[in-house]
Amino acid sequence: MPLVPPYIATLQPYSRGRTAEEVERTYGIARAAKMASNENPLGSSPLALAALRQSDSHLHLYPNGGLDLRRVLAREYDVKLENVIAGSGSEGIMSNIIRAFLCDEDEVLTTEAAFIGFQVLAKSRGVKYRTVPYKNWHYDLPALAARINENTKIIYLANPNNPTGTIFTKHEFDDFYRHVPERVLIILDEAYFEYAKDNPRYPDSMHYRYDNVITLRTFSKAYGLAGVRIGYGFAHEDLIGNLLKVKLPFEPSTLAQAAGIGALSDKAFLHRSLELNARGLRLLTDSLCEIGLSVVPSEANFVMVVFADAADAERVVEDLLRQGVIVRPLGAFGLPHAIRITTGTEEDNARCVVAMQKAVAAAGVMD
Ligand SMILES: Cc1ncc(COP(=O)(O)O)c(C=O)c1O
Fold it and tell me: Which residue owns the Cα nearest ligand 1 atom 13?
């Protein structure tokens, strides 16, 4: 198809994985446990849902581009309105960053097997996409610093990282930042910020308001609003000003903006989500390790399990599906021998451990 540039033709369409309903139908299961997409097992913040319902009397009017939410965020984080952007999920803002700042000769630098959404967005721009390997499943920040060249324009760092769940520390980031020229934009993707924020070693990027750092956050995870598509970012006013030029004028939607404002005030839901997640992380990590699996310690709302090879990972994913437990194979990220399991309800977590014991035995993974 000559109309399609080669860097688009070689992309793989996003594969969303199986829904609970599909798995229930296919395998004749009463209730499947979806632990594949880092969604919130408690559902959505009730205050977000209430705000969303209240906003439905204004749906004949165009939205105001996220202005109300930006105002609330500016107040909450003690920054200027000009330092805040709201968008259709943090991925929506990421897409605007790619459009606003990358020229053809520019290069993007990140870790191997980075968050799939970023990989696709950067590659779809047709620029050079460079990576360095993980070190013990963590970002290798010194190696990344050493790879910066005169064409590097964007460095993408997710903290906590998806799919490994690991963080880099304040100390590591401080060291790294010293090596980054001001002409390089650092995207600090903090989609899982809420889960890591109480770790004293975690570098909350709101304390790093450098001119070339843009922070991205989302309501999709800890606030349970993945289906609404609402995220936000903080950066220097020049960066935000240019992002506002390329962003679709009417994103985020009226409903999404209202839900985001409602969610921000829902401290009780956030607390419940974090508590449940912390218990889930402990249970999954300890129990899966006891089975003999290699589990990467996580600071997010999921754990990554690494198998000896891709065939083992595939067999386990298939067997779990047959038992009604949906997890995420990581081939598309570039880690075909690994899977990612999102923490669920107490019941789903326990069920996942039992299903994994059976799947591992059936697949002969430990033999
Ligand atoms: C690291 C990371 N960044 C961004 C996103 C996308 O978040 P949103 O739903 O706000 O677009 C995800 C979602 O899985 C993620 O894992």
Answer: 191
DSSP, residue by residue, 105-129: T-EEEEETT--HHHHHHHHTTT-EE
Q: Minimal CA–CA distance to 18: which of 355, 360, 356, 318?
A: 318
Which atom of ligand 1 is nearest to 221's Cα? 9
Q: What whole-number distance in Å separates Cα of residue 203 and Cα of residue 67? A: 28
- pLDDT tens per residue, range 206-242: 988 899 999 999 999 999 999 999 999 999 999 999 9
> Chain-centre distance of CA 31, in angstroms?
26
Q: Distance between CA 65 and CA 88 in Å, rounded? A: 10
Which pTM does this prediction carry?
Answer: 0.96
Decide: helix, strand or coil at residue 281. Answer: helix
Q: Which residues of the chain have pLDDT under 50?
A: none
The ligand 1 site (C-beta within 6 Å) comprises 38, 89-91, 115, 117, 158, 162, 189, 191, 218, 220, 226, 231
Closest CA to 282 of 195, 201, 190: 195
CA distance 285 to 288: 5
